[in-house]
Amino acid sequence: MATIRLKKGYDLNLKGRIVDPAIASSANSALYAIVPDDFVGLVPRMDKREGDHVSAGEPLFHDKSYAQIQVTSPVSGVVKEVRRGQRRHIDAIVIEPDGKAESVKHDTGGDVQSVLLASGLWAMLRQRPYDIVPSPEVRPRDIFVTGFDSAPLAPDLAVVLGDDKQYLKKGVEVLKRLTDGDVYLGFKAGEELDVPGAVVNTFKGPHPAGNAGVQLANVKPVNKGEVVWTLDIVTLARIGRLFSTGTVSYDTVVAVTGECVAKPHYVRATMGCQLSSLLGGTDTADTRIISGNALSGYRVGVDDYLRAPYRHVTVIPELSKPDEFMGWASLSPSRFSIYHTFTSWLAGKREVSMDARVKGGERAIVRTDEYDDMLPMDIYAEFLIKAIITFDIDKMEQLGVYEIAPEDFALAEYACTSKLELQRIVREGLDRLHSEMS
Length: 438
Prior knowledge:
This protein is of the alpha/beta class. The protein has helices spanning about 110-120, 155-160, 170-175, 210-220, 235-245, 275-280, 370-375, 380-390, 395-400, 410-415, 420-435, and strands at about 1-5, 25, 30-35, 45, 55, 60-65, 70, 75-85, 90-95, 125-130, 140-145, 185-190, 200-205, 230, 250-255, 265-270, 285-290, 300, 310-315.
């Protein structure tokens, strides 16, 4: 077991952290939904129409290029709506539950890959390069599993995992049959688990130390022509459970956090549930509801749905001080900055209040090394961003584009004085590069 110390990065200590690890039960959700955009790289083709009945684990849609990649329903019920946006883009598939416990039983005695594809768990894996759902035609060099989440207010994955840790060994056995290399598990130092068959590493350092891509880059980076898969330990346990019981578990433990939540807590729910069933009596007026963490999650409404990876909701103020003197340029000692712009840093590390304002406008990139300070990977982040913007493929390859994912730049985006949407830039760059290389 190796311990890797990461000095770059930053831990945002936001208000609204969970203190009590007890898990409550959510209210019944009237509707559930799967959002195809959560499965990056797939072009959905519907298997069900509005009004069709589905069982839990039955396919809702498949990928246009690889029909064997399927995304399944988390509950038994009726397809109430196939919600479409511009150019008939499928925004969400909404399911009205029927209260029955009908679920698909899988024969796990056959080919491992076929079982994962049919179960829908394949769509929860990601590959580097491009940070997309893996192609069934490519065998990965190695597989990296992250065992902790270091994002602001992130849930403790040991709590989310719960008793399913018993399935980790089986999950590793399954993944080892899909690669000629190793299965790596990355844990926070002091919280590691001994999982037979896996290569275990521990990490010390601030966010984004919990990102699978950061762990991959510091253990065995991806080179051009190589493919590596990544996933989290909760998905690993789901895979182990599938091959132990023959069924997929769509239950999840969700952390409901943020300073606008009266009592941050864990709640047991089902993937894709409505957020109203999780938020309970939380006053959501003048708030920003985020499905995910404050850095890389999705802005949603109270009647929207829990997005993949289905384990975190954050609620922060939309505008906490609308009449603040001088607005975003205020020099108040209570103001927070990663850099020592305000005197608040003299008070040491403390919980900070943060709303959804950008507090500044977009401007040209200035050479400050701030991206590099927030990204513990051996790449020149600012030069890579410029290469992606200009779409210089040669420079992108030389600067490490095959190692990155948008979430790796989430903290750098927060710290960016130029206010650039780095995650959007990276995502669009990876999609365009993938299209060019296909």
